[in-house]
Input
Amino acid sequence: MSTKRRGLSRKMAFNTLLLATTAIGAAFTTPALAQDSEGGLDDIIITGTKREENLQDVPISVQALGEERLEQLGITDFADYAQHLPTLSYAASYGPGYNRPFMRGVASGENGNHSGSMPSVGTYLDEQPITTIVGNLDLRLYDISRVEVLAGPQGTLYGASSQAGTVRIITNRPDTSGFSASYDLEVNTMPEGDWGQSVAGYVNIPLGDRAAVRIVAWQEHAGGYIDNVEGTRLYPESGVLDENSDVAEDDYNDVDTIGARVALGIDLNENWTITPQIMGQAQESNGIFAEQQSQGDLEVMHWFPEWNEDTWIQGALTVEGQISNFDITFAASRLERDVDSNQDYADYGYFYDTYLGSGAYFTDSAFNVINPAQQVEGRDSYNRDTYELRMASPAENPLRFILGAFYQHSEHRIHQRYIIEDFNDAHEVTGWPDTIWLTEQLRTDEETALFGEVAFDFTPNLTATLGMRAFQTENSLRGYFGFNDTFAAFYGLAPDYPGEQTCIGPASVGNEPCTNLDKSTEEDGELYRANLTYRIDDDRMIYATYSEGFRPGGINRRGTLPPYASDFLDNYEIGWKTEWANGRLRWNGAAFLEVWEDFQFAFLGLNGLTEIQNAGDAEIRGVETDLTWAPTDNLTINAAATWLDSELTSADIADTVSGTALPVAPELKLDFGARYEFPFFSWQGFAQGNASYVGERSVDIRQTEAGLIGTLPEYWLVDVSVGFEAENYNLSLFIDNLFDERAITGRYTECAITTCFGEQYDVVARPMMIGLRFGQSF
Output
């Protein structure tokens, strides 16, 4: 069993920093390349407004990472790009595929239960939404044109999944102009973890003058860095002594990812293009991605196998063309995602045994006391169909509009089986051996909408825009949840718990004993957006916006509770887009006030069952800004920041106080970067560094829970790299998390904080990683 060597890693970090500093210093003393001194920053083209537009011409707050910057920063997944986009925060928990994004501090600390609230941030892959409830679809990024983050409510164009903002991942499209290809290799290691490697590549092949196919594939092994240490645990009341030698392992949270994308672009004629695309990814992760506070650095002591298999495939079709001079776009997609998992839940049994002596109730069929430790078998299966048709008038007209219709239907099959080995046959859920609790449910969400925006240029410098979305949503939940009636007198088969539904019909989802839940709720309404933009000159503009966002309501599975209602977000914003110094300096920003009404909050209520309530109102004031500066042809500097001031203005759940700051998002988040390029013999060299800061933040809005679990400390993450490019080759050495910072990105307990507060888990950023990248293009 290895021991983590913090002192050695600090020494290595210091020596590496010294080496990197020397390299950067040498780079800055190298003569500059001969380039046009009037050359400015490259334009960034985005499609967040459903049109292709220059970022500087779009009067909304957008932070975008283009293809070149994605490659320079080595960004490959959600956590990577969230680190460099200050307006985007996330709640980290069980690992890849479970991170939940938030924007502008619109977060209540809800528990992310699979039958709970919809996310407040929408995620899109090209034209199609890929938002799911438990966690975001963690696509491995390669051959990506850009990542766009649209901050603030995007309800009129993007609907219910974009209450606080939208993340858009835009892939590179098939190109009929010529053949191109590339591949990239990486090998890396962590002094306090294991080795990793990846290979990725694409090929673009023209098929005549009017068609091309683009094929992309990737494979990655990420080494683990959390040790599951060997040990024993005594359950005090039941007297059972458990040991974990069968699952103890060093660096056990490794991840293997494999995926591919195939897109076909067909130009039917000069006006119409069809792009069918299919993409899929399989990701298997082991262990957990947190350290246990009661154990050592980067260590846990767990008792059952822990793994997660996340497999998804998406088929999409985009048709683009013109009728007269109107642009027509039709987009359709089908997403299928299956997440199978097994999780350790032993803390629940241990603390209930410690405080309540409940271990004595867990027996085998001969009524001998058994180990009360539980494990959870999970399966989430998602199917989503989406369709959008829209028409846009010519962008150059003084009066222009976008009109569209949208429909989506999603089904989420939920399976959770809480297992106690050798559990009494008479007490297990009927038909499910060793099962103390079973959830077998089908959640259905449906949305229909008509939307539109119209813009009018009062003068060449003054433009007004009005937008509206009329929507109808429906949410239903049916199936089974609960115990066997011989074990507990509430939920499931039990008939004796006042006000709770028991069996109301035969099984309707799968192999559950019966149906004890069958509810639905629906609503309709409108969202509005108004914008006034004034262009000072060709390089500078200011704007003012009012916009609305919402999340639909839904079903509480506890029979005594009513459905929870929609929550709405009103956004008041002023912003600026500017360029200075002959296009060498770009400075954008926005100041905003957001009013969040009747926000939804999910928490573990009575008997450990998730409840969703409309918890009250909140206000969020903030400023976000980003700057890019090229003081010379060789040096580029990037900086971005988000500052937030949030508070509850009213609270409708117990143990909350008006004036409390909202959790998850820090008050201050920063990102700084610099890249210097220089000639090196016949090569082009570079040295770059990046520093990201996340301030202190809380985890829960309830006073008792917040006091028990504490606040997450502030942290800095520093990445550096040096490398060379020659013709079509590139080679680089990088160090991520240079100072081996234990950046805590999330904190949780296995059961309710008030019960399991003695065993907390800190989700930590990956330790220092040293790696080498090599690529070739054709």
User: Anything to note?
Assistant: The longest strand covers residues 435-459. The chain has seven helices and 40 strands. Confidence is low (pLDDT under 50) at residues 1-37.
